[in-house]
Amino acid sequence: MLYMDESIQIIGAMLLAAGSLFAFIKCIRRLVDYYEVWHGGRFTRALIVDYKETGSADDFHYLAVVKFFTKEGKPVVATAQDGNIVKPIINFEIPIIYNPLNPTHFYLQQAGTGLFYFLLPLLFLGGSVMGAYFLLTLF
What we know:
The chain is of the alpha+beta class. It has three helices and five strands. It has one domain.
């Protein structure tokens, strides 16, 4: 078994704790943001007119560009905030929920309502806590 210096263990545990704190804050922010949009939001149908590639290394690197009409009849063209694994199909109609005070802030119904979407940061939090525990006690 390799010997690890205690300072390396503590630094590793601190990095995992920082990552888990980030994941927890991100989860709470997602829940609050979605609740605010859900509580005062409006449902409508949007047409995917284009997509953008983020160029990031993660799996969710396609952002849908959608066009929809607000309740007042104002046309809005906006880019989704949440990425997708699959390249969006152009000229495909999808349900969305948008904030009437800021129509460019919306959620696609497939990405925004899934329970896994909110629980993924908590899964990372649990993994980080277990990793920090093993770093501090195993070696």
